[in-house]
């Protein structure tokens, strides 16, 4: 007697095929995501001339395969706890939208957020004359410093709270409040009490960042958050294809 071969019902067979296809799609998505993240990371490091071992986290939200098919990544997020550009260092977060992966088209939009701690701010300000860098602090949403006024045989210490602004892409620090011996004084009162010698701490300091950042980045706003300086930066979407925008800018 012949032994009859047992056949699985059609719906069982169909279920197995569906499962195998799903597993294949999951594996293909994982491979595509890994390859795309690695490629994006390598491009950024090469274009910005960063160290090969630079800590750089790349995230691509959503399913990658359809984005690769259409030729555009809907969104790319890049973050690093510590990155340096021409002596300017800090943590950075970048979000770019509509990033093409073929051709020479620009991204639809991109912006970055650069965060500096007290030590990194001091390092930046060390390149500016007239600021007592070692006394600069960031605390309680304020940037402050201690300045000294030399009066004949004595020295007067003045506490200065600095206001942060952005003018034409430059960081500007201006005296906001002044404190002498625990008493708060206005700029006028300080001048009246100590004369022209006080003018040295009443002016503004302008710090150009253009030559420390790629030319495609423009400083838009600066705020103080707790014990950090946070800078919002606009990014020209063409930076991904224009080598001139990837090079350090210039200060005028």
Describe the structure.
- The chain has 252 residues and is α+β, with helices and mostly antiparallel strands.
- 26% of the residues lie in helices and 39% in strands.
- It contains 5 helices and 12 strands.
- The protein has helices at 10-47, 64-70, 118-125, 187-194, 243-246; strands spanning 57-59, 72-85, 88-100, 109-116, 137-139, 142-151, 154-167, 170-180, 183-185, 205-207, 217-225, 228-235.
- It has a 6-stranded antiparallel β-sheet with strand order 1-2-3-4-12-11. Strands 5, 6, 7, 8, 9 and 10 form a 6-stranded antiparallel β-sheet that branches.
- Strand 8 (170-180) and strand 9 (183-185) form a beta hairpin.
- The longest helix has 38 residues, at 10-47.
- The chain is elongated, with a radius of gyration of 28 Å.
- The model has no long low-confidence stretch (mean pLDDT 85).
Secondary structure layout:
Layout: H1 10-47, E1 57-59, H2 64-70, E2 72-85, E3 88-100, E4 109-116, H3 118-125, E5 137-139, E6 142-151, E7 154-167, E8 170-180, E9 183-185, H4 187-194, E10 205-207, E11 217-225, E12 228-235, H5 243-246
Antiparallel strand pairs: 1-2, 2-3, 3-4, 4-12, 5-6, 6-7, 7-8, 8-9, 8-10, 11-12
Outline:
With about 250 residues, the protein is of the alpha+beta class. It is built from five helices and twelve strands. The strands form two sheets. Strands 1-2-3-4-12-11 form a six-stranded antiparallel sheet. Strands 5, 6, 7, 8, 9 and 10 form a six-stranded antiparallel sheet that branches.
